[in-house]
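The instructor's notes for this session suggest beginning with a concrete chain rather than abstract definitions. Hand out the sequence below and ask the class to guess, before any prediction is shown, which regions might be ordered.
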Amino acid sequence: MGKEFSFQDGIELGRKIWNLDHAIWTLQGRHRDMVHFVDNVYEKIPLFPVDVRNAYMPGKENGKWDYYGYSRRKLDRDKFDEFKTRFYRLQGWDESSGYPKQSTLESLELGDVADELKRNNMIGKEG
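After discussion, reveal the predicted structure:
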């Protein structure tokens, strides 16, 4: 690139790209309620072939690191929804709609993107 580019510069560029991508998805009609996995992921995640009884991987359960059988694990729908709320808050997006907030986009020098979302009534609520 021909110029100094720090790790922090990379993080900020990544945030900018991530928010721009999310804004495009928003303009295409994506809403928080549409962000989910297919139903079978909440019933059983097929990580390994059927003939494997259980596959053990390192993990932490109840504060203890050990090897646990995860081949028959599944995701909890409600817990995933809680995760989305925390994730959207961390990203600076509206927690109820998943839409990017104007302040977040402006802090990333994406004010023109915020303006486009606002014109389409797809800007996240502040506060």
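Then share the key points. The chain is about 45% helix and 10% strand. The domain at 1-37+75-127 is CATH 1.10.599.10 (Aldehyde Ferredoxin Oxidoreductase Protein, subunit A; domain 3).
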